[in-house]
């Protein structure tokens, strides 16, 4: 039954569109109208060759009449595969009227979309037969990712296409209103330097022990406290560890007390924790502790939260190199895997309007450098991360290497890339015994 459905097409509609292009005149050019609807692969193979030849000629500002298309196909050695000169003549005879090209081209594209949808369903059925019971959620997410791409179609591309001048007046009106940041870090100096805008990818990178998780979890808490929806994907730490860090940071309870539990937690600790519970319970902060995180899962969570909260969330991913791709390709190298994930997250951020902050590991390059200060080039596994990120923040603690340093208790947030601002260094204070990072001049309440 599926095989029969996969044959769905409209040869008549394809012939009418191509015939109209072959009968084009200087007064009426149907190629541009057809191109508004047709995508690669929409037509049957022989017709696809004819359409490609028409597009090449049209792109070179040459006529697309029957003689020119025949000559172009002959030059490319594709005339016989396209059905020969007789077939081209038949297409010209079946041309639709000038005002009907858009209608028939849209119909052709609709049939092609239906074929792709049916093919996706067929692949899902086949995959389900080969899927182990423990892998069902992953299989569903992979299928959902494919359906998301099909549902998006080409309408999104059309929405982003137009003349520059058409947008200038509206843009000037938008500039009259101050642009509000889509998310905040809770660190005054950092918020002044880095404006978190919708669609941004921010990478927070450092060697182990520098405070990446403390910084990003603090950003999540601060953003949620401002009333903005926030989502944290924690792959490196499980639920108990994350909750201990949240309580330590918000209640100013020693993290080592909470890690030990029982008698190690003093009466004053309990008092402070109980006091912050109502505030923490009311935060628009969602957690995902799944150890296996893919881009499609991130997209699904963002869309669900956007529907619930009415706006796109700030998303924290801890950390990038632990993610999986949506493709079941065990032969991918770490470089290929991280590159694919980075590209997908960038698409998701732009598509949903979310701000995505990714923790990332650095290689050992900085540890062989004088002063051990990290650089953007130290990002591990992929240069694609550097290319896709709007902002890259590198963490450096001098007291990690020299405990007696005069800068003990400080963390340098090195803004190594800032697409819409300056690159600089913001120095903040770390209180890692409370699992938090604060502004240098901030007074505790």
UniProtKB/TrEMBL annotation:
Catalytic activity entry: ATP + H2O = ADP + phosphate + H(+)
CDD domains from the UniProt entry: DnaB_C
GO CC list: cytosol; primosome complex
Entry keyword set: ATP-binding, DNA replication, DNA-binding, Helicase, Hydrolase, Isomerase, Nucleotide-binding, Primosome
GO biological process: DNA replication, synthesis of primer
Record-annotated SF4 helicase domain positions: 176-444
GO MF assignments: 5'-3' DNA helicase activity; ATP binding; DNA binding; hydrolase activity
Annotated EC: 5.6.2.3
Enzyme class: isomerase
Pfam families given in the database record: DnaB, DnaB_C
InterPro entries membership: AAA+_ATPase (IPR003593), DNA_heli_DnaB-like_N_sf (IPR036185), DNA_helicase_DnaB-like_C (IPR007694), DNA_helicase_DnaB-like_N (IPR007693), DNA_helicase_N/primase_C (IPR016136), P-loop_NTPase (IPR027417)
Family affiliation: Belongs to the helicase family. DnaB subfamily.
PANTHER family membership: REPLICATIVE DNA HELICASE, REPLICATIVE DNA HELICASE DNAB
Protein name as it appears in the record: DNA 5'-3' helicase
Source species of the chain: Streptomyces spiralis
Lineage, broadest ranks: Bacteria, Bacillati, Actinomycetota, Actinomycetes, Kitasatosporales
